């Protein structure tokens, strides 16, 4: 008994240390974002801000309309894209998980083929711009990620264990396939929906690539792409000042980088705890079923 308790204590200590190692960088980034740039360069990173300063955030919010517009675009794309992608992903995964559907293997092969062989950037760009005419539209930031093969197979691993007897009983009671999907399968798959939905939301939230390819209007720029351009501007100015032998102490370079990390990751860190219960349960169920 004592040995079992000792093993639990050691396991808990190991997980506590791992958790601290994961959380510590977040606090260092948060502290650095509120530090004085000169002191941060001289003294390095600390859990306590080096000379409390909000200069980095003031620099970022010099043009508040631009960053607020970027937030609006990213939130809109994330919400609409996650809802649409989760519906299409779960619907396709449910179809290919049904062994009694005669096209299940064919569709599974097509999804696997799409996952293994990417058509490339040029054909994708031509399709989006020339065929679908989505250049410089909000839907250009949503459409490419509506169905991701990896997410389909991940959802399939959850749905394929849905009791067949439950589906057959619903059919006997007169339920159609759509009723079975929405009223039986989806309520049972809440952990799976939360897990895959969180992955999809992170994908949309962190994307900057689609904005770079398909968006020219500043009003449709996503948050990540706006911050990417802002960081490039800071890097360019810093290099120019070095070439001109200008003092860099007034340029909030390092602190601005950390402030951008806080602004980019902050909303998702706030949202995640609300889905943590379903996310952990979904990961556990997926591990058992896989």
TrEMBL record:
Lineage of the native species? Bacteria, Bacillati, Bacillota, Clostridia, Lachnospirales
Major place of residence = membrane
Where is this protein localized, as stated in its record?
Answer: Cell membrane
CC terms in the record's Gene Ontology section:
plasma membrane
In this protein, which residues make up the domain named ABC transmembrane type-1? Answer: 71-275
The residues forming the signal peptide are none
**What protein name does the entry list?**
L-arabinose transport system permease protein AraQ
Q: Name one Pfam family in it.
A: BPD_transp_1
- GO terms under biological process: transmembrane transport
Q: Where are the membrane-spanning stretches?
A: 12-34, 70-94, 106-126, 138-159, 180-205, 258-275
Q: How does it sit in the membrane?
A: Multi-pass membrane protein
- The record lists the organism as Eisenbergiella tayi
């Amino acid at each position: 008994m004592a040995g079992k308790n000792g093993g639990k204590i050691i396991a808990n200590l190991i997980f506590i240390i791992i958790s601290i190692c994961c959380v510590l960088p977040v606090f260092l980034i948060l502290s650095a974002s509120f530090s004085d740039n000169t002191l941060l360069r001289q003294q390095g990173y600390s859990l306590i801000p080096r000379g409390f300063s909000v200069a980095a955030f003031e620099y970022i919010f010099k043009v508040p309309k631009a960053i607020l517009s970027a937030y609006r675009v990213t939130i809109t794309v994330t919400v609409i894209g996650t809802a649409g992608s989760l519906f299409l992903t779960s619907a396709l995964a449910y179809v290919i998980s049904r062994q009694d559907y005669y096209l299940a293997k064919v569709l599974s092969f097509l999804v696997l083929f799409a996952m293994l062989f990417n058509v490339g950037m040029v054909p994708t760009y031509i399709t989006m711009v020339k065929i679908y005419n989505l250049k410089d539209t909000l839907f250009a930031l949503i459409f490419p990620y509506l169905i991701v093969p990896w997410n389909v197979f991940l959802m399939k691993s959850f749905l394929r264990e849905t009791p067949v007897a439950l589906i057959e009983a619903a059919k006997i009671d007169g339920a159609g396939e759509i009723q079975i999907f929405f009223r039986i399968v989806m309520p049972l798959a809440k952990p799976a929906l939360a897990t895959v939905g969180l992955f999809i939301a992170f994908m949309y939230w962190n994307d900057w690539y689609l904005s770079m390819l398909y968006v020219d209007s500043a009003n449709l720029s996503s948050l990540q792409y706006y911050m990417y351009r802002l960081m490039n501007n800071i890097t360019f100015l810093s290099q120019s000042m070095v070439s001109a032998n200008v003092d860099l102490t007034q340029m909030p370079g390092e602190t601005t980088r950390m402030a951008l990390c806080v602004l980019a990751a902050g909303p998702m860190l706030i949202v995640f705890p609300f889905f943590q219960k379903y996310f952990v349960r979904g990961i556990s169920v997926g591990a058992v079923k896989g």
